[in-house]
Amino acid sequence: MRRPYIKTVSSTASSVLAGGIVPIGATLVTGYCKAAMTLNGNSSVSINDNCINGYLIAVNATFTAPAAGTVVLNVSRNGTPIEGATASAVVSTANTEVHSLSFTTTVKSLLAAPDTLSIVNAGVAANFSNVELDIYRL
Question: What pLDDT, on the 0 to 100 scale, is given for residue 120?
């Protein structure tokens, strides 16, 4: 069975304040029912599909931080963090440590389409140099 998917990549460095939305770049690949998943500018993906199974979401990000603290990434659906769709890393030395965060999660579809998914920096400010977001319908 053919299932829609989308892959976005941002390799342009961007500074994201605490609580800010992480830029996800441009659509690198889409497949099959392309209208089911669309990129909204540089900040989110809309899912216009009432798939009863759900979606697999994968996030990979590389960053430094201008201050010591904990960088926390999560995926939000319609502005609300998705439980379990999060990862964090502790930065001890500002501007010198390069960290990577990766996580995957499965999300049940909501009956009311569309879902708008975005990556949020819920921790201290960070400078992201590589961000990848993959979403696959199950």
Answer: 97
Phi, psi (5° rounding) for residue 34?
A: -60, -25
Whether the model pTM is above 0.90:
no
Burial of 65 (0-12, 13-18, 19+ CB in 10 A): buried
Euclidean distance between CA atoms 87 and 40, whole angstroms: 23
The whole-number average pLDDT for the span 108-121 is 83
Query: Exposure string (b/e) for 70-94, b if CB count within 10 Å is 16 or more?
Result: ebbbbbbbeeeebeebbbebebeee
Report the C-alpha gap between 133 and 5 in whole angstroms: 11
Amino acid 32 reads: Y
| Residue 59 in this model has a pLDDT that exceeds 90 | yes
